[in-house]
Amino acid sequence: MGIKHSDKATLQQRLNIEVPIIQAPMAGVQGAELAAAISNAGGLGSLPCAMLNPSALKDELQRLTALTDKPFNVNFFCHKPATVSPLQTRSWFESLSPYFQELNIEAPGEGPGASREPFGDQALEVLEQFKPAVVSFHFGLPEPAQLQQLKSWGARILSSATTVEEARWLEDNGVDIVIAQGVEAGGHRGSFLTQDMTTQTGTMAFVPRVCAAVSVPVIAAGGIASAEGVAAAMMLGSAGVQIGTTFLLCPEAKTSALHRAALKSEAVHHTALTNVFTGKPARSIVNRLVREVGPMADTVSPFPSAAGPVSLLRAAAEPNGNDDFTPLWSGQNATGCQEIPAAELLQKLSAAR
Amino acid sequence: MGIKHSDKATLQQRLNIEVPIIQAPMAGVQGAELAAAISNAGGLGSLPCAMLNPSALKDELQRLTALTDKPFNVNFFCHKPATVSPLQTRSWFESLSPYFQELNIEAPGEGPGASREPFGDQALEVLEQFKPAVVSFHFGLPEPAQLQQLKSWGARILSSATTVEEARWLEDNGVDIVIAQGVEAGGHRGSFLTQDMTTQTGTMAFVPRVCAAVSVPVIAAGGIASAEGVAAAMMLGSAGVQIGTTFLLCPEAKTSALHRAALKSEAVHHTALTNVFTGKPARSIVNRLVREVGPMADTVSPFPSAAGPVSLLRAAAEPNGNDDFTPLWSGQNATGCQEIPAAELLQKLSAAR
Hints:
The structure is a homodimer.
Chain A: H1 11-15, E1 21-23, H2 32-40, E2 45-48, H3 54-67, E3 72-77, H4 86-102, H5 121-130, E4 134-138, H6 144-152, E5 156-161, H7 164-172, E6 177-181, E7 187-188, H8 203-213, E8 218-221, H9 227-235, E9 240-243, H10 257-263, E10 271-274, E11 282-285, H11 288-293, H12 307-317, H13 342-350
Parallel strand pairs in A: 1-9, 2-3, 3-4, 4-5, 5-6, 6-8, 8-9
Antiparallel strand pairs in A: 7-11, 10-11
C-alpha cells in the first residue's frame, strides 16, 4: 500500500483552520450555531444547505457570518432529481398505509413536494454574495460551469466518495479534497456511481485504499469519535477527519428531544443503512419504521420523495413522544457524544497524544 | 469514551510473543507452514482446524510442532450443528441446478456430509497431547467443561465478537482475550448471538466500543493491512491485531492459483458478506455465484451443509480455470498482500513509526 502526501501543505494550511477536524454537515439537526461554534474554535464548521431554499439559505448565511469570521463550509446535495411515477408514489403509500390508519390520519392523494433540492444556480447566486471558503457536496458534483464559478472566488471544493471509483471520479472532476466516507458514518451515504450497498467499506479499510488511489488530500469520515480515533484516522494516511454524530448532543445542535433521547439510550447501539426515510440509503438508529418496512425497502419511492409521507407520520407521532417514524441519524460510534459546548468537545477531539 | 487498560501486561507478555500480531486462522487456504512461519518470526501463527478430523488434526499439529517451538494458536468453530431438512436441501439444490446443468454434472440426491465440524471431545483429546498455548474459537465457545480442560494446561482462550453484546458474553463466559471482528474482515463473521448483518460494525467504530465494554484485552480485526493500520488499531485501544487477507499471497499459504489470481485482479476491490458458500455470512470477493445467487440467499441450506453442493460445482469448474463457484475469501483491504515470505511481511507490518 502507499500512503501519499502529494504536497506538503497540511489541511490546516489549505483551509486556514487550526485543527484538522471538519464538523460534518447534518441537515435537519443543525444550522449556523453549531457551524459557527466549530469554526470559532478552530475547526471547520459546516452549514447543511440541502433543505434550505434560496431565501432560507441567505438568512442562514447571514446568521452564520454574523456569528463567525472564520472559514466555514457550506454543503449541498447534487442528486439528479428523479421523476416519480404515480405507481411509485402509490406503492410507497401502500407500504405506509397501516401507519396512517394507526395514527388516524389521512394519506394524501399525492406526495408532498420534495424537501431536498439539488444544488443549482439560485443557490450559486446566494453563495456569490458570501463567497464561502469551502463548499462541499454529497452525491457527486454540480455542473462544471457551476463548479468553476465556485472556484472563481477561491472556494475549496470537497465531496464524498464511498468507493475507490467515486474517489477517482471526484479527483478527475476537480475536487480539491476527497472525503472518504466509511460505512460507519451516520446519515446519507454519498454514493453516486453505485447503488449497491455491498460496495460500502469500513473506514479502517477504505481510507488507505482511497489514499493510495488519489493524489488530492483525503478526509476520513465514519466511526471517528475521540482524539484517539482522530489520531488513528491520520495514521491511516488521511489529512484530517470529518465528524458528525459526536456533536449531536451539543447545545448548539438542533437535534430534537426525541433524537437526543435515542442517542442516549441503548437503541443507539444498533444503526442500519436504510432507505425508508428519504429513498436513499442513510444510517439511522433502528426504530420501528426501519425495522418493519426496511431497512432497505423495495417499495420506497425515489429520493427525496419518500420523505414526504414519512413526514406526515412524524408530525402525527412526535407530539406524543413517539419516534417510530423519526429519522434518528447516527453513525456506528456514538460513544463520543457529550452534552457539552461544541468548542469544548472539539478541543477534546483535538487533544494530541 | 473510555479506553481501558485493565492490567499492565502487554499482549506480547500475555502470549509470549514478540509483536502484537495474530495471523488470522484461514481454513482451506493455509495450514502449518504459514502458522509456523509467523510464530517463528515473533507473531502468533494460527492453525485453522475447523475442516480437520481428529486424525488430520493430529498430523497437522505434528507438522506444526516440528516446524516451530514458539507459541501458536489453534482455531475451531463452535457452531451448533443444524438439522437439515429434506426441503432445505432441495431448495438449495434447486437454486444451484442451472449450474449443475451448465457444467453437465449430476446433482446428488442428498448433500455430501458436512465439511466443518464443531469443536468436540475428540479434538480436545488430540489437543491434550500438544497443549497449545492459545486456542481460539469462532461462533462462540465450546461447553464449559471443555473450556476448563483447555485452561487446565494454561491455554489462553480467544474468541471473536461481532457485536458489543457478543463481546460481553464472551467475557462473561471466560475468554482471556476478545477479538473484535470489524465488518471489513474476510471469511466468516464470528457472529453467534445475532444473524442480523445490519448489526455488523466497521473496525474504526467497533474497536473503541468493545474496549469500553469489556475489561479483557481486545484484538482488532478487519481492514488492517499495513504497519500504519496496526498503529491505528492500537491507537483505538486494542492490545494487538489479527490480520488474515494480507498473508494470502505469501508462499507459505496454500491459497489456490485461482484465489491468488483473484486477489491480484481488479475483482478484489469488491467483496461482500455472502452465505452462498457455506450457509453462514462470510466475506468473499464477489464472483458469479455471489452475484447471481447471493450475496445473501434465502434458499441457502444451513451452515455448513450449503458447502456440499457448491464443492461439486467447484470441482467441475476449477480445473478449467473457472472461479465462478470458488469461495474467494478476502477482507475489504487487500492492499497489503505481497508475494513475499510471511516472516518478511510480518516484519513490515510490525515496523514502528
